[in-house]
Amino acid sequence: MIIPLFVIPLRDLPPKFSVQLAGATGLDAPAPHDGAAAPISTAFNFTLHAANRRQGDRCYRRGEAVVRYSGYTIASGRTRAFCVGGKEARDVPVVAWADGVGLPMSVRERVAADWRAGAVELEVDVRLFRGDDGSARPTRVSCKVTAGEAKPPSVTPCKVFALQGWASDFAPAWINAVIS
């Protein structure tokens, strides 16, 4: 059987990631009446779900998480070291927080209004650092989640930016079947 050469780089399939937000606090702080940028304190609990599509283990020695609203960083945290076995999945709890984030008044009013409406659109970015191959190559995971009571917590797929097998997400199914 002849395997086309373009299949070879796809053997190292990147993991799939998703995020589920479990809780958020601090987004409903009242704005000051004098128009000053008063600080807010936020905390977010979420679960990073990692699914390894490779045969071998994939390990990360640490990670950094950032939560943003309209481009403003409103919380940050770290992930613990973890490994995901070959063709397995794992949930990693993450807590991100900030104490005293100053937001412009217009942004603060908008986030408070979104919270009262029950749906605050957030961006969650996670950088994971490899620990299994000695390269320390980062894998960047970018997700969009909604906090609030209008939508029940759901699992949101993330975009993965890493230096391996990126074409596997849009390659034809028969190619992925050949290399699995």
TrEMBL record:
This is Late embryogenesis abundant protein LEA-2 subgroup domain-containing protein. It comes from Eragrostis curvula. The lineage of its organism: Eukaryota, Viridiplantae, Streptophyta, Embryophyta, Tracheophyta.
